[in-house]
């Protein structure tokens, strides 16, 4: 029973990898067919340039997610779970976004659609900025909001404590330590 979850993950990873390869290579075959036979769009330069991030993402998903199983069925390497969130999810998004742009390029017969690909580095820059900003605030280097600066009033008491009775304030200051009675 201990290996059931590992076997499920291996089966699921094989299924996901088969699906993503089928979708990706089918879409590239359709795009190549339209590009070479119907000259839609006229230039394939942008296709080659923007296929590189998708193929790089596909390579990373393949490298980290492909389980290794020996002929007897014993799992040698489990591989990363391809259903988890985070970087794996973003790699799949890049692949799907590239496929969508391929089909939009065919439909509109224009290479101007590839300018929408700038959304990928823009989103990456936005996420990196948020991570850096959160790290800076975590370690005290971030800017303080007005609420944090004005935490104490003129009397030296916290603003949130104004509605509390003196007994509640004393208990909080004391830490509500139970008193021990000895016989």
UniProtKB/TrEMBL annotation:
Q: Where is this region: Disordered?
A: 149-183
Q: Transmembrane region positions?
A: 20-38, 45-61, 94-117
Membrane topology, from the record:
Multi-pass membrane protein
Q: Name one GO cellular component term.
A: vacuole
According to the UniProt entry, the coiled-coil residues are none
Q: Name one Pfam family in it.
A: TMEM208_SND2
This protein is called Transmembrane protein
Q: Which organism is it from?
A: Wickerhamomyces ciferrii (strain ATCC 14091 / BCRC 22168 / CBS 111 / JCM 3599 / NBRC 0793 / NRRL Y-1031 F-60-10)
